[in-house]
Records
---
Amino acid sequence: MTALLPGSSRPRPLRGRPDLHTSYAAEMALLNTPGKRRGVAALAVAGALLALALTDDWLVILARGCALAIGAIGLNLVTGYAGQVSLGHAFFVGVGAYTASALSGDPADGALIGLGVRDMALWLPAAGAVAGLAGLLVAPIATRLRGLYLAIVTLGLVFLGEHVFREWTALTGGVGVGRPGPAPQLLGWRFAEGSALLTGAQQTYLVLFALLCLFALGGRNLARSDVGRAFAAVRDRDIAASIIGVDLRRTKLAAFTVSSFYAGVCGALLYVVTPYVEPGSFNLNLSVQFIAMVLIGGVATISGSIMGALFLATLLRVTQEIIPRLLPFIDTAPRRDTLLTTTQLETILYGLLIVVFLIAEPRGLYGIWVRIRNYWKGWPFSY
Amino acid sequence: MTTTIATRVRDRAAALPDRVAMREKDLGIWQEVTWADYWDRVLDVGHALLSLGVEAGDRVAIHSENRREWLFTDVGTVAVRAVTVGLYPTNPVPEVRHLLADSGARVLIAEDQEQVDKALAVAAELPELTTIVYLEPRGIARRYTDPRLLSWPAFLERGRAHRRAHPGAVEARMAAARPDDVATLVYTSGTTGPPKGAMLTVANVEFAISVLVEGGGFTDPPPTDRDVTLSYLPLCHVAERVFTVWFNAAVGVQVNFAESIDTVQQNLREVQPTILFGVPRIWEKVLAGVTIRMANATPLKRANHRLWMAVAGRIGRTLVRTGGVHTPATRALSAVGSVFMYRALRDRLGLRLVRYAASGAAPIAPDVLEFFMGIGVPMHEVYGMTENSAVATANRPGRIRLGTVGEPHPGVELRIDDATGEILTRHPGTFAGYWNNPAATARTVDADGWLHTGDVGEWVDGTHVRITDRLKDIIITSGGKNIAPSEIENALKASPYIKEAVVVGDRRNYLTALIGIELDTVGDWAQRRRIAYTTYRDLSERPEVVALVQAEVDRVNERFAKVEAIRRFRMLPKELDHEDGELTATQKVKRAAIQDMFADLVDDMYARAA
């Protein structure tokens, strides 16, 4: 029968037509065009190859950037996507850091709480879960407050947290003393120690990079799902959202819980890179840094959160290395004739960058990327 | 057993049941219909028609935009040996009355409330119309009480019930089909009088398929089921019927239905067809769209466009010289140009994968064809008409002659009448006559079987045919000079600013023209020059716009002989429209009607000189 019909051939899907979607699954796919698929694959490979291309001190900075990026994604979920302004992110990061440290701490050490659970596969989810639980407890406040009021409440949370961290010496070691961070050990592999092939910094970076990919994927997936759409609906107008059937309480609860989970994971991972936890770190300054990452990277974008975190993580290094050489009146440590220290400069830069981005490119680094992309996407037209 | 489009669909469904036959965009998703689904639905429609008492030779009318149900009904109708009659969605009520009354349709498939209303408005005068099936229930279901109304699901349910009670009834009717069964009535657009229904028989359709589809009369190599088309022109026109229904049934070309004529650009980008047919108006609009969007691009992009369009012009001219065959130089230029411009441009226009593009149904300006050839779209002008089942001539890939409609297809006799210059064709695709109009049939087909096309033409190099104009449109000036207005009109319409041009001058001492602007491009042009305007008429009559059109007219005049120059022109005060009786359903200008309607403008152009 087949032979009788002219022009028949083996079946072939429609190629070269990325916009022709024959199912909702194809249209809503995470990477719905060949360009995105290729781009993400190339980025992942390039990210992994960086481990070989850069020196160890840079890898430590990038590994820290990866951990911060996970935290920034968390903040972006609650603030960027769901529109709930949170200044309390540092608190959840602290909860995560101490949960992980306490779990993996040495039980023999009498001064500090330690449970001896040394594997990352256990302490990392636990850090996220405890922070998430803390978020769940705070969330009911968020369901009753909006905007500025919520910001003030979360601000209070940071101060409460900071006080607890300073005073609970059995957990944190106390101000100026601190405690060791969680053990860098994944399923028995002590990746911070280095091997015949790779140094410890290279391995640590690779582990964190892989985790960042995992959490970024999770965040993106959440954002494109019905939960993510509910977040956006609540952000754009909560009354309208509740009228079309979005459960406000549940949505805000979910936003805070997921965000805090990410923050907890971020906290635990930060102290894998810097192996010492200081209770004074989880202050308002850290919260502001996260907000800067989100604003500079791009509100309500996952890739923007990553860009913002990596940008700010490397900014510190740039201010320490390059600027003192160019401007001699700025120094890394305060001396008599220094006008500014680099740490002070950094704080000023954060402020300046936020102002500049909010005025010039409110969509952040992601917005710049989108402009560049659209310029070429529209080729040879402008629209 | 006689092969019909119904047996072709049945055989394909049996052989390749899971292959995609067609797609239609519904709620943002291109819903696919496999061949098995297609045939199943055709059987439902066939049985439903049987249950409604449709006999062999009865007429079934379809008044709808292009969609899946159009094909289901068309093939289902042919399966039960009935006759499909297509109505243009834009047909106003008086034309609907004429078409339904003239054809004596028993069943009408109407798309939505709008079309149902048109039919109900004249239903009292249509005693033969027993059933009106509506596809879109919105506004009709539970509100209209006319007993003749039937919803599409209820219609199919009727078919399924009949199928259970009488299995094989449709197949039995199909087996009785004969080559001289009338398969469809295609109403001519009627630029002069009321539309006439051309009867195309099963044998006519099969001949057209054997020449145009299986014989590769257009494309080279012939189309296969890997080819993809976009269906957007009215299916009641013979050209779209060829490219949608017949290409699909014969070799399984995948048909994709555009959402509407307004979304064609967007749908083209999504579907990226491999075979695309367009009327000149569509190609002119695509070209005008490029002009507008380029004018608003950034300086770098504009410079890039200027550079590569100059190169494209060179490639196009070379291809015109060689008949469409690349030389090493043009191939190299195209390859480099693809990187910087052409590939991206074709992708944005939805023409990236087009391996064969055709223009037909009306004359087109050579400049437009040259543009498309230059950017790498293999463009071919083809010629055919309803009365010869669209089989006459085509420019074959590699043997293109610009300005001609190509060579006669194999098996087609074509000659040019010595006395009148009229083109005559003779082949098995010549139609069986006009429905209920033997007098008109006798005027069109002579005793020897030659079809008088009504087009005046001439041979070019003994192989290609050039069409001068419609016989009845030829202008004879008072100086006795014969002038083909369409050539001048098309040269004018090639300008992105001019949408319509009607040349006037029969029995007058010079030529004049009525010109309608292209609202999009001229509006954009005016905006960039900060010329304020309110309506179409206001914009048309702005002195700056008149000057703009004057420049275009002057440019065209340079290319023609002095007697063919447009001495004066006036702006049309409104956009021409089918509903107002200025255009036919296929957007062809009704010359006589226009000159009548705008007689004051015409008189004005001649009065001043006197």
Note: The radius of gyration of chain A is 23 Å.
---
Amino acid sequence: MDAIKSFINIFADPRLFFLLSVVALALIVWKREIFARNAVGYGLMAVLAVFFAFGLFDENFVLIIAKPDNVPIVALIFLVIFFTWYSMREAVRNDERMAAGDDVIEKQESDRVWVWPDLVYTELISLILCTAILVVWSIGLEAPIEQPANPAATPNPSKAPWYFLGLQEMLVYFDPWLAGVVLPSLIIVGLMAIPYIDTNPKGNGYYTFNERKAEIVIFLFGFVVLWSSLIVLGTFLRGPNWNFFGPFEYWDVHKLEALTNVQLSDYVWVRGLGQSLPDNILLRESVGILLTLGYVFALPVILARTVFRNYYEKLGATRFYVTVVLFLMMLSLPVKMLTRWVFNLKYVVSIPEYFFNI
Amino acid sequence: MADKKSVGHAYNVDFLNVVFAASCLFLFLTSIWMIWDDYDREWKGYQRQFVLLESEVTRLNLDAAQEAVDEGRLEELRAQRAEAEQTLLLNRQRVDELQSQLEDVEAELYLANQNFNFQKADYDVERYAFEEVQAEHPEEAEGLRPEIDAMYERWVELGLEVERLTADRDGLREQIREFTGGVSDADAEIREITAETTRLEALLVDLEVDFVNDYLLNAPLLDFMAPTLTVQQTITPNVVDDVNFTRVPKMDRCQTCHLAIDREGFEDYPQPFRTHSNLETYVGSASPHPIGSTGCSVCHDGMAQSVGFVHSSHTPTGDEQTHRWEEEYDWAVPHLWDYPMLPTEMTEASCARCHKDTVYVPEAANLNVAYGLYERAGCYACHRTRGFDGLRKPGPSLTRIGAKLTPEWVADWIRDPRAVKPSTWMPRVWYNSNTDSPEDARRSEVEIDSVVAYLFANSEDHEFAVRRPPRGDPARGEEIVASVGCLACHIVGDESRLEAGPRRTFGQPLQSIGDKVSYEWLFDWVRDPRHFSSETFMPDLRLTDREVADVAAYLEGLTGSAGRPAEATYEDGEVGDVLLDYVRSVLPTAEAEELVAGMSVEERQLDLGRRVIGRYGCYGCHDIAGFEETQPIGIELSEQGSKLLALLDFAFVHDIPHTKIEWFKQKMRDPRAFDRSRVLQPLEKLRMPDFGMSEEEVTLFATAIMSFQTDVQPLAAQVPRSARHDALREGRNLVRRRNCVGCHEIEADGGDYVDLLDDPSLAPPMLTPEGAKVRPEWLYAFFREPITIRPWLDVRMPSFGLEDQHWNVALDYFAAISDVVGPFRTHDPVTLAQVPPEGRELFDLLRCQQCHVLDTIPADQPTDNLAPDLRMASERLQPDWILDWLREPLAIQPGTRMPMLWTELPGSFYPQFGQDGERQMEAIRDYLLTFRGGPSPLRAGN
């Protein structure tokens, strides 16, 4: 039993956790026919249920899972996985039909919407059920009164509301001005821009994967891997001092993590060239600045001329550049994660003199 | 699937109906659950249960009240009433006639009153209008005046009418009363006699179950209107909660369940219904801490706004209660509230929130002992603590250690002090739970030897006052030690620290002292302690050299365990290794190595000794040469009780509950416990020494620490400041810090020495009434040069050699206890010629000399009857106090043998002054005050 627990604890390491999420996404996309099977979908839910049932016998696991704040996140795990699987199943079915020359399932349904009694009735039922569930929820999961807020004693770990835990996770890799201001703004701007940059009329009103491969993969990566799974990770696996703890581990405040990350400028000057850091800030950070500028300004142009040429032609210059910049911004998080894990890289550009770090 | 054109359904409506019905039912059930959940509170159950208990208690009270009713008188009154009623019946017709007239007049009066009031209202309106016109347009005012005057006239007339009718009514009532007076008088007296039983009967009726009050008003959904089961709360404007950003009045809801906390009669009921255990001091409306202004949580802590057992964070005492609560209430260690309730045995810690800077709080026995122990153990010497600033170092001075001790003894002593003297407060620095391995033993021995070497190398010379002291008789010495009062401060036998208490461990225990010091040193010390150590608190007992020799001979014979032997030996080279370790923590390794290499073995040992003393902070408790200015090593504890749990490091200690109090307790049980399982270099280890505390001591120290809190309560909540309050506070501290209370009982505390005596009459006197009793100038002189007041006592007042500031604190303190007007009081001196002869007569008649000394000690009297020399009275006693003393000696000094001679005051048994007791007492007092020539401290040149 303990062996199983420590085995599972190993996967709570953020590196493995993230890597596995990406691998899982790739598998889902690549082997989607298998993934779309009912047996796989229901089997996944069953495995999850067994996992949580198994965990309920563990003291530390229960402490985290059964905390009233966290219970909805357990539901979130089931719901996100279920709906990912469900939409993929529908998409695969439609793709198969289209490959066979049939109409998609949705095509066969009538355009007509039965308002009375069907729509109104189902809405009413939903309303009643939601009310009842909220009542049960609020009785069952009590919100306790805690001590008065004390500015001198913040809770450890201090956690953002669950829906911001993805953002809080970004703070580990980026400075607050990026993780808290620039990137969230770009997320909102990007979401608003989607209708203008995604002009692919296919997949409108029906499930499909083959007709919208890139869009769906980007969405799944951005939403499921970078957003939802980081919420789960932030809720269940981040403990005191924002350290990582496996689901069966005791949240000991004394657990330590070695902070041995170094700046890119250290790599270049101290480790690479074997000399001390230049006094001139711009010279010191020149490599990082060039890399960053290249990532934001040169890489889109290079992509337009090389691998994404088709897209460039299809979308036109404006749309393409907006899309690619947004895409690169989204990728900056996994890129930064990877460099941190692989190279212990702290910041690409580090100018603490002006509180400016990238 | 329906055809586009036809009207169809996306869903099976019959099925939807079923789903709809099911979800409605679900919502209905959850709604009921919601209402029930809101309605079903544990405190309501307690309040229902309490109604039953209250009926039970009321019934008992009613029985008692009925017993107390004078049945005979009641019967008599009933008979009287019946008789009066007969008379009334005979005059029925006349009474009825008057009654009907009275009713008519009352009706008229009612109307007249109404007219009068209405006229007044109308007049006031018009008058205001007129006044306004007069102010703004004076020219128009005159025309309106007649109207106003007329209204006033009318109002006066109506007033006259009211007065006439009132007089008529009163006349009629008087006439009726002539007939009914007998009945109503009897009724009034009956009501008076049965007032209590009537009240209790009414209460019982109220308490009976009744549909409207008990069911309807408290029914779910209806209980928002006027429920009889309600949350009971006390809001205390002067006692506040600190909510970090501001302070708000406390809102204590404890009484919601603890319903009888401030009511007598529920002492034997189980919690939460029990009466407070000390209603006279707390909670009671006549106590100094009434619940309405003090509340509950300022003493008990906890989340007082909560009305749930677990949420309000009750704290159990002992394992048994913990287990029971876990089972009954699903109790768990509270972690959502920073300040859970204090366990009951530690509640006194909260006294210090308002009773500040004092080591004695009346009635707080545990806290007072805790503070006493805190000083005895010398906690404040390493840990700065507010209220314990500027105290002397608790351990003896080591600056002359060479003249007193041998290095071998000191090494054995510091290795494990309790192995030598089981009752000592000297803690064990080495061989503790984080230094108990064989490698640690070698290092410990190196450190111990180096400390000893440093101490002896830095010792000053000391010249004994008597070079070759005479040998004494140990048997006589034992008698002297047992009788002059040494045992008020020192333990001799195998008594434990806790049994002896903080007062009798004021001085070092004398266990094994013969192994420790030489006869010469003992003689020198007992003869004049300040000769060896000018700062010592040990007083001079004014023994003769002969007696000193006897005492020294006895003490020399007190031998015992040699202590714990060294558990390892080491090579000389290891001294250098350990020293290098120390030096490397302050210098770069190369420099450290160079420094150590340049030293001889002896130099290394001395340098290491200095560093070891610095690391363990020995100089906190002892004067050690070279450490005069060094700051103590412990963290400040002034606000330790308010420290947040998150700031306490439990490390890998998981076998105790993670609460603040348990952390403190664990720290005291084993100060090094939090090093358990940790990998640490020797200099990283915890270094608080082990005091070997018993579980009771641990609890007491935890109480003291929990009493050190951040100031939260406003001045209005604290004891009002006044000169008397300050004098009390400083005096209470002084008599404890000089251990006056070891011998004397003061304010119902202390006087431990009495318990050591077979005959309590041989004990030092109780000093509570001292301020009212003796003249301050006499007392001051006595403090400085004590004289023998009761020659039949062996125990004696030592010479303390205190400075004037301390003596004045003591004088002010005694004055403050008795609340006397001040040092100066008028009493015209009387000469023998002025004293009426009755004074002398009474003095002889009452045979005062039978017990009181008058130059000679009365013969044939047991010692417990003897009383001080009356020739001292004129210098010593306050004349007013003598009268108080004669009037009621037992009220001043419980247990005194002085008889109460005037039991018939203001009269008297004795014939003088026409049996006027007061004048008799004055005469005898005045006669006493003419005596001269008794022993006096004043004449000794003071």
Note: The longest helix of chain B spans residues 138-193.
